[in-house]
Amino acid sequence: MAIEVSNKTKLHRLASILTPIFSTQKSRSFSTAFNSSNPITSKFSQQSHYRKQISLASLLQRYGFPSSQLYNFISKNNFLQNSDLQELEKSLGILMKLQIPQKPLVSLVSDCPGVLEFKFLKKWERGFQESELSSASPVMMRNVLELARRFQLDPDGFSSNVKVLRSLGFSDGTVSRVLEDFPAIVMMNEREIQHRIAFLMEIGIPRNENDRFLCSCPGVLRFGVEDRLKPLLVEFGDLGFGEDLVRKEIVREPRILSMELGELSRCLELLKTLKCREPIKENIFIEGAFRAGFQVKLRVDCLCKHGLIRREAFKVLWKEPRLILYEIEDIEKKIEFLVHRMKFDVGRLVDVPEYLGVNFDKQIVARYNVIEYLRAKGGLGFEVGLRDLIKPSRLRFYNLYVKPYPECEKMYGRYSGDVQVKSRHPVSLWKLFRPQRHTEESREDVENMKSFMEPLV
C-alpha cells in the first residue's frame, strides 16, 4: 500500500511540473473531442500521450535534466515523444557508460538531441572500443559525438585517424587532447594530417618533441600550411625576426602558431607607444620584442574572453602597461571579483584600468570590505563607484572612509594600530642626519678634567 501511495505522489509531482506545459494541448483536445465522431478513442489517445510525456520527463530528470528546462526541451524536440522510451533510456545509459559527467551530458543532449538515437550511439560505442584509446577523456567523447551527429559521420574515420596519429609517434594522451580541441580531425584524410606534421618538422621541431608540442597546442592541426602557417612565418620575418629566433620561440611556446595574421604587428605597435616608467618598460622587453609581443597577445585574449572587444582590450593594456608583467591567473581573479562579487560590468575596466594594476588583497578586497560594511550600516550617503574605490591614495581613502569608523581599521589594515607603517628609509638612517647630543658631565668628571689640565698650564 505504501509503494502505491509513493508512486501516486511521484506521478502527481511530475504531472504538476508538466501541467503548464501540456495544458494548452489538453484543452485543445477536449474542445475537439465533442466534435469527433469517436470521442472515447480521442480521450484514450490523449491520456496515453500525456502519460508518455510524464514518463519522458521522469526519465530525463533521472539523468540530471533540471525541471526548468523540460518544457523547452520536450516542446522543441517532438521526435522524443515518438521514440521508444526503453531505447532512450539505453541511449542515456551508453552516455553514462562513456563516463560523460552529468553537466556535459545534459549540455550535449540539449545542444544536439539527435545524439540520443540508439543505433547511432551503439555504433559509436563500438567505435570507441575498437580504437582502444586508453586516455579517451569525457570531453573528447562529448565533442566527437556532437560533431559526428551533426555531420552524420561513421566511426571508421575516427578509428583510422587515431591510428594515423599513433603511427606518427603520438601518445594516447596527446591524441585525446587533439580530439578535444579539434574533433574535426576525424574528417581529414591521412595526407592532410601528415602534411601538417611535416611542416612542424621543417621549421625545426625535433621528432622527439612532437608529442609535447602537439599536446601543448593541439589546435595547430586545424590550420592549413599554405594559407595560414607559412604566411605567418613570412610575417615574422618581415617584422625583422630571424629564423633561428622564431624557431626557438615556437619550440618554447607552441601557441605562437595559433596567432592570427597581423596580430603580432598590432601588439608590437602597442608596445612602441607605451608611456610608462622606464623600469616597467625594461621588464616588459627583458626577453626581447618577440616575447613581449606574444605576452601582449595573451593578455588581450584574456580580456576578450571575459567580455571586452579587442579594441577595448588594447586600450586597457595601453593605459595600464603593468598588466603585461602580471600573470594571467591574477588578472582573471581580479576580473572574477569585479563581475561576480562587486557586481560591476566588465566594460568598466576601460574607464578604470587601474583596477587591474593594484594589489588584490591589500587594496581591492580591503577597500571593498570597508565600503560594503559602511553601506550595510547606512554610513554612506552616496554611491561609491569603481573609480571612487580605486583612484584615491591609501591615505586619502583612510581619511575618508576608515578614520571616522574605528571598527573599519582592521578591515583596511594599512593604518590600523596593530600594523606597523613602514618608513621610506631604513630604520636607523635618520640618525646620520641628527646632531649628536652633548651629554652633561657629573661633578666627579669635572674634578678629573681639572686635575688633568692643571699640570699643563
Task: Walk me through what this model shows.
The chain has helices at 2-33, 39-62, 70-76, 85-97, 102-111, 118-131, 138-150, 155-167, 172-181, 190-202, 210-216, 225-238, 243-252, 263-272, 278-284, 289-305, 310-319, 328-341, 348-351, 360-377, 386-390, 394-402, 409-412, 443-453. It has 457 residues and is mainly alpha-helical. It has a domain at 1-82. The model is unreliable at 1-15, 17-37, 39-45 and 415-421 (pLDDT under 50).
- What is the general shape? extended
The low-confidence runs, each spanning 5 or more residues with pLDDT under 50, are 1-15, 17-37, 39-45, 415-421
Radius of gyration: 35 Å
Helix content: 55-70%
Q: Return the string of H and E elements.
A: HHHHHHHHHHHHHHHHHHHHHHHH
Distance between the termini: 129 Å
In percent, how much strand structure appears in the residues?
under 5%
GO molecular function: nucleic acid binding
Protein name: mTERF domain-containing protein 1, mitochondrial
Pfam families: mTERF
InterPro entries: MTERF (IPR003690), MTERF_sf (IPR038538)
What layout of secondary structure does this protein have?
Layout: H1 2-33, H2 39-62, H3 70-76, H4 85-97, H5 102-111, H6 118-131, H7 138-150, H8 155-167, H9 172-181, H10 190-202, H11 210-216, H12 225-238, H13 243-252, H14 263-272, H15 278-284, H16 289-305, H17 310-319, H18 328-341, H19 348-351, H20 360-377, H21 386-390, H22 394-402, H23 409-412, H24 443-453
Organism: Morella rubra (Chinese bayberry)
Protein name: mTERF domain-containing protein 1, mitochondrial
Family: Belongs to the mTERF family.
